Amino acid sequence: KAGVTQTPRYLIKTRGQQVTLSCSPISGHRSVSWYQQTPGQGLQFLFEYFSETQRNKGNFPGRFSGRQFSNSRSEMNVSTLELGDSALYLCASSSQDRAGYTFGSGTRLTVV
Amino acid sequence: SQELEQSPQSLIVQEGKNLTINCTSSKTLYGLYWYKQKYGEGLIFLMMLQKGGEEKSHEKITAKLDEKKQQSSLHITASQPSHAGIYLCGAGNTGNQFYFGTGTSLTVIP
Fold first, then answer.
1. pLDDT above 70 covers what percent of chain B?
2. Cβ-contact B84, B107 below 8 angstroms
3. How many angstroms away from the CA of B3 is the closest CA of chain A?
4. How many C-beta neighbours within 10 Å does residue A27 have?
């Protein structure tokens, strides 16, 4: 079966702009989590959505938001981009019992 | 918050050598995951351990979970260049959040 698909793979944005990243989970998975990975901070949890509801949220400013659609696809939005937002953004999907998390290949965001 | 400390932070080994990576949690573990990541790419799921004393193997990689010590170890036997990458442990907590370890960078010299 198809894995977790993230689009786009690479993105370059200017400070102050906003960006939307997309994540399509494995078919049948209803949970989607988002993570930010930077050299300095490592992998950090952003938020998790389950059945279109945000189930948990990490310690990130309100500029980071997300949503999940009825087909479980999820989008993450970052407004008023800052240079420090440059990172690899990963999403992962899991089944209801969280027996395992499958990650996408990530979206590499560069803010200039 | 839950913290997962990995050791060593980086490892350089000669091809064919065995190695062990440790992951220690500051809180009770409710399952422990191991992932491998090539630079700039997504994470590849290796295995999940759910019960204390559980041990799983996949090809030349073996992972164990010691619930009492709140620790897991990942052992690679007869390492190969294809094993190179960043190894991450991960765990969930009662707050439904998922945390990753600090990571271990592995280099295998042919």
1. 94
2. yes
3. 11
4. 10
- Looking at residues B54-81, what average pLDDT do you find? 93
Percent of the residues in chain A that have a pLDDT greater than 90, as a whole number: 65
CB atoms within 10 A of CB B66: 16
Q: What does the alpha-carbon distance between residue A47 and residue A54 come to, in Å, rounded to a whole number?
A: 7
Show which residues on chain B lie within 8 Å of chain A, measured between beta carbons. Answer: 33, 35, 40-45, 48, 88, 90, 92, 95-100, 102-103
B-chain CB neighbours of A56 within 8 Å are 95-97
Q: How far is A106 from chain B (nearest CA, A)?
A: 5
- Give the torsion sign (CA, A43, A47, A51, A52): negative
Q: Name the phi and psi angles at B82, rounded to 5.
A: -70, -15
A20 by Cβ neighbours in 10 Å (0-12 / 13-18 / 19+) ranks as middle
Burial category of B109 from C-beta neighbours within 10 Å (exposed 0-12, middle 13-18, buried 19 and up): exposed
- Confidence at residue B1, expressed as pLDDT on a 0 to 100 scale: 59
